[in-house]
Design goal:
The chain is mostly helical. It is built from 16 helices and six strands.
């Protein structure tokens, strides 16, 4: 394998590893803050127990997310130094903003939240939880701003003297319509992940305790786990609607900006009106259009998803062959070595990643509906199949998010910075031209092996810690706040700072 292939594989592996953890942090942090809010408002101890329980799982996920994410930015200056040289003036700005949000706001208020249970006023401590939660969402916004610029560059110009892209407007970058389609889609997907996680874990516990038929355990299931089941299920339903609506808006924008990506996702080779949505298309691995067979399809649905029209001239969608011809005429059919440039992204990966992104969310929908039905009007369930569905559903939105990210990145190929069809065409970069010319393939291979093994070890640690503390259940708790201790007459002015978990 050459340096380009190795650099792409390394970035893909490390990114997918890292991104598995990201949605849970983004979605679970506000849910934990919401649980703590419920405790502060209602003074009901069950919400404090749930806050401590899911808060511990959040901290584990956050710590491993930071550990796996630190490597990402270093790759831009090493394996992808030519990319950084070309767009670093622009791409670095939102990354710097993200670093400020993540390492200053998130870490500061997370530290205060962890260590401040017995030192901070209840409301101040709760404000720290919300500050940390909102900072994770702001952090995601700036990361998506950088990625959305790669998908649809705006606010920049090409300097022919230096051979670099230069920023002319940070405002345009932060108001990029690609960003404002991707951001709500990513955040609602994160809430779907977190809702499924909370509902799945709480459902398992509820069923387990009800089946014991021991009165005190059944009461624990009713008082503590059942509210968590309902909370997670409601979050899933609301987030699911948000994912659908934002995904629909994003798909329509992508058909305007990167039609090759969306046509590859539909295995649509030739442009047509009333384009069908493919339920199943078969062919060999890495096929050409001539090797594809559309087995099951629904007429007009692809056109509606891309244009908002089922039929007529306004429903026309370009095929990947049309995009290949247009791109070849506009940007050249061959590279500097005389090799043909393939402007069509990998069809099989684009097609199946898109469908797995959508299809795996069915498990969350099934769990949400069944859980709400099983807990209606004060009821609980001892159905082991519900418990099994809760466990089975937990990893599915994680995988759906990962496949969505794979589709987003693979579908942009062969571009690392896709051309903007409505303006600054000269600000574009083929992936093969972004890889470092100084780092040899052997070094990339060695680092890829090391990082893959390291991330595998971290993944095992993450799973074992999450599993260990999830099966421990909600802890016994008491109000540690200064107000509670003052009310009890306890004098602990010399008490040292303690770790809350």
């Amino acid at each position: 394998m050459d340096a380009l292939a190795l650099a792409r594989w390394q970035f893909a592996i490390t990114t997918v590893y890292h991104f598995i953890l990201v949605p849970l942090t983004i979605g679970l942090a506000p849910l934990v803050a919401g649980m703590q809010t419920a405790w502060v408002v209602t003074k009901n101890e069950r919400w404090l127990r749930l806050t401590k329980f899911f808060g511990k799982l959040l901290l584990i996920n956050f710590a491993l997310g930071v550990a796996t994410g630190l490597l990402q930015e270093f790759q831009f200056g090493m394996n992808w130094s030519e990319y950084s040289r070309f767009v670093g003036d622009i791409f670095g700005a939102p990354l710097a903003m993200e670093s400020l949000a993540a390492f200053f706001v998130e870490s500061t208020f997370l530290g205060l939240w962890i260590f401040g249970w017995d030192r901070l006023n209840k409301k101040v401590h709760l404000a720290c939880a919300w500050a940390f939660s909102l900072a994770t969402i702001v952090s995601a916004f700036f990361i998506l701003a950088a990625n959305s610029w790669m998908q649809h560059p705006v606010g920049a110009t090409y300097n022919a003297t230096t051979g670099r892209a230069e920023m002319v407007s940070i405002g345009k970058i932060l108001t990029n319509n690609t960003l404002w389609a991707a951001f709500p889609h990513t955040v609602t997907a994160a809430f779907l992940v977190a809702g499924t996680f909370v509902c799945g874990v709480a459902t398992w516990w509820m069923v387990r305790l009800v089946r014991t038929k021991k009165p005190h355990l059944v009461e624990l299931a009713r008082s503590t786990y059942r509210p968590a089941v309902i909370l997670g299920a409601c979050v899933m339903l609301v987030a699911g609607v948000g994912v659908i609506l934002s995904g629909d808006a994003q798909g329509k924008i992508m058909y305007q900006q990167q039609p090759g990506k969306m046509s590859a996702a539909e295995s649509l080779c030739e442009g047509q009106e009333n384009a069908s949505f493919s339920i199943l298309t078969i062919g060999p691995w890495n096929p050409t259009c001539d090797e594809l067979t559309r087995v099951i399809e629904v007429p007009g649905v692809a056109s509606f998803l891309g244009t908002g029209h089922f039929s007529g001239p306004d429903s026309f969608l370009p095929g990947v062959n049309d995009v290949q011809k247009e791109m070849s005429a506009k940007f050249g059919a061959t590279d500097s070595a005389g090799n043909p440039i393939q402007y069509t992204p990998p069809l099989a990966v684009s097609y199946w990643a898109f469908r797995l992104m959508i299809g795996l969310a069915v498990f969350s929908a099934a769990l949400a509906l069944w859980a709400l039905w099983a807990t209606r009007r004060g009821r609980m369930s001892d159905n082991t199949w519900l418990s099994r569905l809760g466990i089975l559903a937990i990893p599915m939105p994680f995988l759906a998010c990962s496949f969505g990210w794979i589709f987003t990145e693979v579908g942009r190929q062969p571009w690392v910075v896709a051309p903007n069809p409505t303006g600054i065409d000269e600000v574009r970069l083929l992936t093969e031209r972004g890889v470092s010319t100084a780092v040899p393939a052997g070094v990339m291979l060695a680092s890829m092996i090391v990082f893959t093994l390291l991330y595998l070890v971290l993944g095992v640690i993450w799973y074992r810690l999450i599993h260990r503390y999830a099966i421990e259940g909600v802890p016994e708790v008491h109000d540690e706040s200064p107000e509670a201790r003052a009310a009890s007459g306890e004098d602990d002015s010399d008490r040292p700072l303690s770790f809350a978990y």
